[in-house]
Structure formats: structure tokens, C-alpha cells
Write a structure and sequence with these properties.
mainly alpha, two-stranded antiparallel sheet, 8 strands
């Protein structure tokens, strides 16, 4: 397979014997209406193990790349710790472009939906548009995450055979242009979901196939606006006038642009955008985090941010852990993070003396959802926007983001009640006292307030949204993390972006247009601070 050009694989993915038979079996049932193929592809597109915290996503990508680069996981300073594993980054790239099972292949599935939709009658097309437009939200979300990792990517021409029947090597689209298209299309989709009143049969079918939001159109609209806000703030330091105008319009018109929950005591399972595991899923993240010794608590997050403020999230984020002796297991007396400045030999012999990722919340929790958007992230984004551009009280939204983040992580802990008794949710008085502490209270200069918002958003992303944490770290410059210089000259420090996969470099003739950008030190377009 490695000797076949990547985009030939992408474009022909539905034409090979095995794949075409699978497509025919799943989506071309003669007993179903023609638009049923669109609805089944929609479900397949949602069922994505790169969205959920699966073993493969966490083990091969997060704990080897974005988790280390953002210091949202503990790690050992092994030789080459910052090097990109070309096989695993290529796998992450391929999973966006072509389906190989478990719902990966966002690009190919979406282009196939577009092709099928274009061939329907006017009446069928109107009904199938609901599935196509919902899929479009996921498509732009995942495409912009690809931009965050690589920069320019094949986009407008990618999957062309699925879309039009024309096989061609896809050009690399400009990263900023992809973001701009997504932002403008999401604005249109907000209006679409606000006005749509599907007929009962279509609504029921959508509810059945929508394994993400259970057919709730208002929630799709809220997801659209939350995603658009994220993208606008992501580019806000390089295109500030454009971002400020669009964000201000959204935040001053809440009736037109509804977001996620604005309550501190909200229910994350009902109000956040979460892809829950399938009913028969029983795996957890223990192996993903322990095979490369990434289960230790990250030092900066624990010791520089959480402990000085006596953060109430600590008990559901970390276990104190301990060491085994001849007398048995001796628990540690305090929470400590694994030092990033130590050489690997010193780290290894002292691992048990440092805290680890919480066993109930992370290591043994088979019910962890895939996180597409949370209310806390939206609140932190609003706080930043009001801080920089006025129009609202940044402290109110910052405090709400903190309250919602606490609620969210206790919710994750409670999902695993069968493993051990959940931690009790802190009472409102304790949380309010926490919010008034100097390390937390939104005080100081404009830059100091911006720093606090950025750091708390990074903490909230944590392990499960390490890709977002890395993106925001690069965009804002906070927190100011220190990394031990590694002995490998190719990667003495973490990169600013991922390198393009070898197949892309070798076989896509359009690679020449981005070759000069294909350097680890070349920043993504929104990284200008």
C-alpha cells in the first residue's frame, strides 16, 4: 500500500473491490429510498475514533505528539522525545482523507455524500440536505483541526473522484483560506438550522442516524456557533479586524447566534457536544497511557497552576500514587508532578513518587466521550473576546468557564461510578472561595488577565483535548512552558507544526508548492504572537 500514491488511494477508495462491495452492502439497499445512502454515510462519518479518545488516537498520536508538545501529559525525556513518528502522523493524516473503518475518512465520506445528494430528485435532495449540512459541520471542524496540525492541506480538490468522478492530484489549499471558508459556511449553517422545520419522517430518520446530538436541530445550531467562535478567536491575532467584527456581531445577538450552556450547574452530558462511546464499548485508556509511561501528572499544570490555587479539580484529574516496598504499597503524601527538567534515568527510578492521571476519570473509564465542544471553552472564548474588544464583562465569563470546567471534570469522573465511588462535587461556597484566590481571580494588567484566561483554557483542554491545547498554546503563547533540550539534533525542542507524510511528499506533484513551508519551525498562519 505504501507504493501506491496517497491521493490515488483517496480518490479510488470506494472503487476497489473490497470497498465498493462494502459501499454497496451498506448504502445501496434497493429496499431503501435513494437518500437513505446519505443518512447512513452521515452516521458512518460521525462514528470516528479520531474524535473519541480511542486507544489508537491516544497511544499513537496524543501521547507521542500533541500531548507532549502541549505538556498536557507526563512524559520521559527519552532520546528523540520531540521527534514526530512518521508512521503515526501519516496514519492521522490518512484517517482524515480515506475510510479504513470505525468512521474515519471524513473527506471521502463527505465527498461521497455530496455526490449522492447531487443526483437526487428535488424532493429527495431537500430531505437529504439535513444530513449533508450536519455532516458539513463535522467536515469543517475536522478540516480546521488538520490545518492546526499541518498548515496548508489538500482540501478543495481532495476526494474529487467521490465528488465528481474526476481523478486528479489535489492541490494544497492555503490554510487561511480554509479557515475563512469554514467561518463563512458556518454562518450560513447557523441560519439553516435556525429556520429548518423538517417533515416528521425526515426528522425521525435524522434522530435515528444522528449518534452525536440525537437529532436536536437547536443543538446543531449551538455547535455551529461555538465552532465558529473558536475559529474566529484562533485567527484573531492575524486577522483581528475581521475576527472582532464577526465575534462582536455574534455576542451582541444571542437570539440569532445561540451558544452552549450559560449555567454553572449545567449537565455536560446533555448540553456539551460530546460523542459518547457505542453501547458495547468496554476499552479504556490504561494501555494507551502506560505503554510509553505517559500516565504521570504533568508538572507545570499540577504544580504551577492547580496546587497553588488549591484547585478543586485536582481530585478528579490526578491520583497521588505511591511506591511499592517490602512492606507493601506506600501512598504519596502529596500531589507532585513529574519534573520535565530531569534526565530520563532520574525520571524512571522515581516514577512512583509522582502523581498520575486519575484512575477513575481517565485510566479505567470506558465511558469517556469524544469532546467536540464544551460550554467551558465557549465561556473562556467569550471572556477573551470581551477582555480584548469590550462589549461585556470578561470576569463574569471567565468565572463561569471555571465553574463549568469543574462541573465537566466531575461529570467525567461520575461516568465511571461502577469502578469506584465518584468524588463528591464541591459545594458552591467552596468554588466561590476558590474563584476569589489571587492565582485565579481575574486581576492585573490586560496581558495578565489574558494570560489567566489562556492558561485556564489550556488546563480545561488537558489530555482529552491535547490537540486543542497545543493549538491554543501556540496561538496565545501561554502558558510559558519549559522543555528540556533533547539530545537529538533533528528535534531538540517541540515543533511548531507536523511534517507532511512521506507518501504526500513522494507522490503528490503539488507538494512542490508547499515544500518551503514543510519545516518543523514554520508556524501555522494564526501563530503570530
Amino acid at each position: 500500500m505504501r507504493n501506491i500514491p496517497l491521493y490515488i488511494l483517496i480518490l479510488l477508495v470506494f472503487l476497489g473491490t473490497g470497498c465498493s462491495k462494502k459501499l454497496e452492502r451498506l448504502y445501496n439497499d434497493p429496499d431503501q429510498l435513494p437518500n437513505a445512502r446519505v443518512e447512513k454515510l452521515f452516521t458512518e462519518l460521525l462514528n470516528n475514533y479520531r474524535i473519541r479518545p480511542s486507544y489508537w488516537e491516544m497511544r499513537t498520536f496524543v501521547v507521542m505528539h500533541s500531548g507532549i508538545y502541549s505538556q498536557t501529559v507526563g512524559y520521559l525525556n527519552t532520546p528523540g522525545v520531540y521527534l514526530q513518528n512518521p508512521s503515526y502522523t501519516e496514519g492521522r493524516w490518512n484517517d482524515f482523507y480515506r475510510p479504513i473503518g470505525s468512521g474515519t475518512g471524513t473527506m471521502a465520506l463527505f465527498r461521497e455524500m455530496q455526490k449522492i445528494h447531487s443526483g437526487l430528485t428535488a424532493n429527495e435532495k431537500e430531505k437529504a440536505s439535513l444530513f449533508l449540512n450536519a455532516a458539513k459541520v463535522i467536515f469543517y471542524d475536522q478540516a480546521c483541526q488538520m490545518v492546526d496540525l499541518w498548515g496548508d492541506i489538500p482540501f478543495s480538490e481532495a476526494g474529487s473522484l467521490n465528488a465528481s468522478g474526476e481523478a486528479k492530484m489535489a492541490k494544497f489549499d492555503n490554510a487561511a483560506d480554509i479557515y475563512k471558508e469554514a467561518i463563512e459556511e458556518l454562518k450560513v449553517l447557523n441560519g439553516y438550522f435556525a429556520a429548518l422545520v423538517p417533515d416528521p419522517a425526515t426528522a425521525n430518520l435524522f434522530r435515528t442516524q444522528d449518534i452525536l446530538l440525537n437529532g436536536k436541530l437547536e443543538k446543531w445550531q449551538r455547535y455551529v456557533n461555538a465552532l465558529r467562535l473558536r475559529l474566529l478567536m484562533r485567527i484573531s491575532h492575524v486577522s483581528e479586524s475581521y475576527a472582532k467584527t464577526a465575534v462582536t456581531n455574534m455576542l451582541t445577538n444571542p437570539g440569532v447566534y445561540p451558544f452552549l450552556s450559560e449555567q454553572a450547574d449545567y449537565d455536560p452530558g446533555l448540553e456539551d457536544i460530546l460523542l459518547t462511546p457505542l453501547a458495547d464499548y468496554t476499552l479504556n485508556l490504561r494501555d494507551a497511557l502506560t505503554e510509553l509511561t505517559n500516565y504521570s501528572a504533568p508538572q507545570y499544570m499540577l504544580e504551577e497552576v492547580l496546587l497553588p490555587a488549591e484547585d478543586p479539580r485536582i481530585p478528579v484529574l490526578f491520583d497521588k500514587y505511591g511506591v511499592s516496598t517490602g512492606a507493601g504499597f506506600v501512598p504519596n503524601e502529596a500531589y507532585r508532578g513529574l519534573p520535565v527538567s530531569w534526565p530520563v534515568e532520574q525520571q524512571q527510578v522515581n516514577l512512583g513518587k509522582f502523581a498520575i492521571m486519575d484512575s477513575a476519570t481517565f485510566l479505567y473509564n470506558s465511558k469517556l466521550p469524544g469532546i467536540l465542544m464544551t460550554s467551558a471553552e465557549v465561556s473562556f472564548l467569550k471572556a477573551e473576546a470581551f477582555l480584548r474588544w469590550g462589549g461585556g464583562d470578561p470576569e463574569t465569563w471567565y468565572k463561569l468557564g471555571m465553574q463549568q470546567s469543574i462541573r465537566f471534570y466531575y461529570y467525567l469522573n461520575q461516568l465511571n461510578a461502577g469502578y469506584k465511588k465518584p468524588e463528591p462535587i464541591p459545594n458552591p461556597e467552596l468554588i466561590e472561595a476558590f474563584l476569589q484566590k489571587d492565582p485565579i481571580r481575574l486581576s492585573g494588567s490586560q496581558e495578565e488577565k489574558f494570560q489567566k484566561i489562556a492558561i485556564q483554557r489550556w488546563v480545561h483542554f488537558g489530555l482529552l483535548q491535547a490537540n486543542q491545547a497545543w493549538a491554543e498554546l501556540r496561538r496565545t503563547g501561554y502558558p510559558k512552558l519549559e522543555f528540556r533540550i533533547n539530545s537529538q539534533p533533528q528535534a531538540p525542542l517541540p515543533p511548531k507544526r507536523l511534517l507532511y507524510p512521506g507518501n504526500e511528499v513522494t507522490y503528490n506533484v503539488n507538494y512542490v508548492a508547499v515544500r518551503d513551508k514543510d519545516k518543523t519551525y514554520f508556524p501555522i498562519f494564526w501563530q503570530v504572537r
